[in-house]
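Q: Hi! First time doing this. I have a protein sequence and I read that you can turn it into a structure. Is that right? Here it is:
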Amino acid sequence: MDKLWAPWRINYISVKNRGKKCIFCYAKSGASRDYVIFKTRFSIVMLNIYPYNNGHLLVSPLRHIRDISQLRQEEAVDLFKCLNKAKALLQKVLHPDGYNIGINLTRAAGAGIAGHLHMHIVPRWSGDTNFMPVISNTKIISQSLGELAKALKNAHK
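A: Yes, that's right. Below is the predicted 3D structure, encoded as structure tokens:
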């Protein structure tokens, strides 16, 4: 069996971080505006500060819920509208060739923040994998989070 190693994620998913305040609740309070791209009545879209690829966004309901079964109809509709808008912004700013979009429900399924439902949207480019992660355990992210946040926010206006 092949293994995919991502040791840099341990700080993101480790037990010691479980007691910290929910990043989505913290962001919705307005305390952290830097990486919030936009917010609606029911949802928030923000950059992942531990991205798998440049432009990795998180789309979350504002209400702190754990599972998709807890979404109210208007929240579910808004969440997917935000996902579509986020994808359109990424397309406009970064021009990726495709996307990985997903939801990890529970820690066992890979959720780093299992208590607050969220979706990942990861832009992908043909040939975006290379030797660096294999040889040096390093992922190259070609743009700073601040620069990307500014570009996405400008595109949203």
